[in-house]
Amino acid sequence: MPRSNYAHRLIEFPDLIFPDDQAFKHRAHWREYFAPRIGPAFTNELIFEIGCNDATFLSTIAQKQPNTAFIGLDWKVKAIYDAATRVNDLELKNVALLRARAQDIANIFGTNELDEIWIFHPDPCDRDVELKNRLISESFLLDAHRVLRDENSRMCLKTDHEAYYEWTLKVIENPAIRRAFELIVSTPDFWRDESALEKTSQRIFAGATTTFEERFLSKKKPIYYIELRNRG
Questions:
Q1: The model's pTM
Q2: How many domains does the chain have?
């Protein structure tokens, strides 16, 4: 039996969705994939969003930055199908989508291949038995460090979950992580923190909110934010 009613429909977008093992086919060659799609104006900047859901947020940013390449990842089959439908309808040639696990980041990308990694509202896995499944871990961050390009590269995390924010701060205290990354922004209330907003004003997502953020902001709840600079 198929894992989802949408699993067999992913083949409707063969040049847009790369599911399962196909997610690894462009490793270390993602810029070659995007160059003919975007054209000579391609900036060579490659941004990876983990947990893109239906690509509402990713598509909004990609429309505004047509010469930058974006790769969105989600594990849920229907979410990635809906994302592909949206991207296809908008005729966004600067977006590719993966149905894959974020923990496989080092198999999806080559060394120094990415410019930015966005992790916006990851699953908090907040039950005790689920803590081991949290994406943010020493091994994941070290893999992220390997695939980020240079000292100008960033990893950006947003969450509405206080415990996940505190968990992340503890993980990055690890000496190996401190050698790999510099913590440049940490705030428990991103949208009310003028210093954090100023420091992130050059990020291309500046001023934009995800669907999850909108829900929590409408309830007057804070958004937690962490930004790590790759040490190269």
A1: 0.95
A2: 1
